[in-house]
Amino acid sequence: MNRRKYFILLGMVSFMGLFSACDVLEEVYDDPTVEKKEGQYYIDATDYAQWVYINLHTPIPTIITSTISLDDLTETGAPAEWDIAQHRYDVKTNGAAVMMTPYRSIEELEAAGLPSEGEWVEDEESEQCITVDMSHMMEGYLTYAPGHKNKELGKWVEVDTSNMPPNYTMHDNVMLLHFADGTYAAIQLANFMSTDSYQVKGWMTVNYKYPVVFD
Amino acid sequence: MGLCACATAYAEEEPADTAVWNRDPLGLETVVVTATRTPKALKDIPVVTRVITAEDIQKVDATNVKDMLQQELPGLEFTYSMGQQVLNMGGYEGNNILFLVDGERMAGESMDNVDFSRLNLSSIERIEIVKGAASTLYGSSAMGGVINIITKSPSATWAANVNSRYEGATKEWRHGASADFNIGKVNSLTTFQMTDAKALDLGEDSSLPTYGGKSYNVKERLIWQVTDALKLTGRAGFFFRERESGMVSHERYRDVNDGIRANWCINSLQDLEVAYSFDQYDKSDLNMLTHKDIRDYSNRQHIARALYNSQLSTLNSQLSLGADYMNDYLMTYQFADDHKSRIQNSYDAFVQWDYTPSRHWEVIGGVRYDYFSAAAKGMPTWKLAGMWKSGLHSLRASYASGFRAPSLKELYMDFFMGGIFMIYGNPDLKCETNHNFSLTWEHHGAIGDKFKYSTTATGLYNFFNNYITTATVIRDGKSGQMYTNIAKQQIVGADLNAQLHHISGLGTKVSYAFVKNIVEKGKPDLTAARPHSLTWRLDYDHQFSPNYGLYVALSGRFLSAVDVTEYTSTQLDEMTKTHYDGYSIWKLNLSGRFLKGITLNGAVDNLFNYKPKTYYANSPVTLGTTLTVGLSIDIDKFF
After folding, report:
1. Segments making up each domain of chain A, as ranges
2. Domain residues for B264?
3. Does B572 touch chain A (CB under 8 A)?
4. How close does chain A come to B258, measured CA to CA in Å?
5. Which A residues 73-112 touch B at CB under 8 Å?
6. How many structural domains comprise chain B?
7. Which residues, including other chains, have CB under 8 Å from residue B76's CB and lie 6 or more apart?
8. CATH number (domain holding residue B290)
9. pLDDT for residue B4 is more than 50
10. Which of A62, B148, B281, B284 has CB atoms 3.0–4.6 Å from B107's, for a disulfide?
11. A10 CB near a chain B CB, below 8 Å?
12. CA distances (Å), B329 to each of B129, B297, B303, B404, B413, in order?
């Protein structure tokens, strides 16, 4: 073989990248880590048998998790002071009324002032308020717990299960909360998946501001 | 006897002349490689092989292998499972049909099927389909058959093509280009294809999710005829597909593959092929909220193989010896957090003896042994096929055993499905196995000077053991699913084909397939194969002048009704049957060839505007009549 042939062979081999690193696409992907911003909390609301309570009245949100017994559906560990609580995509409030605003950032809402139009929605009680056990779905039944939740806030994630896999729609409208003490808070869903490589649904990243003061 | 595969095959100058085309309208002289791993003419192979030619592909203007197969082969249906396209062919699911590109395996799967959109048909010379078990030559996953997509041979000088197509239903644009040229003894072939489609709106009642998306596929192949006896082939490819699967995330699929192959013609009787290939198939999600592209699946396969052929002139036979090694790496979100990736090595060796005792007889026998490191288990397979031919008749009979080794996913899955229930892998799974028998009668001939015809009739019997599916288990007091080997079943089938060609360019082809699964009493038939199916084509191809040729085809396919058993619970005692209506879809193709190098294609698909009552897994995804137009220009034909 003359030198030209060696050159062609070398060119072919290097072109094909045969001896490149095994994972040739490694550099294509992003680092899943997402840095948390100020005015944002990130909670694990994946467990069907838990409520995650958030108190916005403290300097930084106080987050406490309660557990629901699958035997008698009683809840233990709920705090006395709280503003909202999250369970998967369900949300309940501590006596607040909620308005879904058309704004896509809290600053936008503050600049626009208190919406004059829009519906204030309070929590609703029901016997089958939240699903607490999905593990018997294969046997054809689910376990629900009674309680209350706010359907307006729950609109932030809508799950359409008519097709498999389900289709998720997220509404990142700023939700305005009017608490029983007369103060306002604003929350906005930024992401409902974990910010690691697994992207598990039910990890909620929420932008918040309390208090929101309107002129 | 095998044909010498040593020298680079250069394509003959193109024909589009009806007389030339009519020399072998039945394709009996077509040389194929899949059934024996040596080049042989169709009429000389004891194992029935079906061929879809480049002309067929061009006339249909198909984008990918799915479009082409379902139009040409009865007994084959693409359906949906979890939003992914899955295949059923002759009662076998997609993971038992081995898809090869130039003889090379493909990495990656979704719902146990390869990514069919990777298999675009630009620069394809032919598709070879071998039904029935072929594990003795190809190992795992070749229980139901092998579909081998063969890239075109180098041009004698150079060739270049650009093409575009628009499909009305999904508003899909497809653009493609290819070029090959020679510099000295090196030939380069570059192909590119991109598609961009919108989601098909099947209405609110549909249970079939359809998605818009785009894809890019680029391939390069270099062939270097180093000496008369030695040829090197190098290749590399990149594939990207993005599926607009929801507002919050888009699914992305990427593949990088490359390989090098050396073909050495040791002497006029012996040749050796040594090859290495690499294929990496990844899946990722583009999170539309964080705009991060996060990978959650990567399958990487390194394969080394060798194949030695020797013609034994004293015994009028050919001996093939081969061995393969594969390193299979899988990282997936479906594995447990503490063990996100798994690796398996597999090794095999095989021998095949192809004996031609007389011009009337041909016999092939083969044995193979595969070893898989994950289960530390081996699997022998064997085959025996014979053919008798005399004049215009031939009879073929074959027995082959096949198997599918449990995949890494089936062995080690540990996945909380949809946040609802666990699916567990099962390290104790046995291989799926089958015994496949087939008997084929073929007859071809002429009626006067102007008609040629061929007919084939095949009967198939399969004994299928250790079918792998999921069954309910209770762990930690909760119901989950675990991969399990379940009962035996038998698949019987028949294929009938007839084609007739007139010297004027008029031709017709009809194919019928019957398939029936026989399961143990009380056990469900999970394979959902439609029992009767038919494809047909009536076409006319004529070159009126050097500058103008016309091809017209009226084709269609019919699939009979089927009741599909689906579990409401996987206790294996609660199930429901979903009825799918039978249907037929007709297609009218018009293809005009102008100025030697321009082809204008038009097609009216679903000519009679068939719409299923409901859109569900096995329903055809059609909204009714669709118009497709395409333009292809062979630039080299103008020089």
Report:
1. 3-209
2. 18-638
3. no
4. 6
5. none
6. 1
7. B69, B70, B87, B88, B89, B90, B513, B533
8. 2.40.170.20
9. no
10. B281
11. no
12. 28, 11, 12, 18, 14
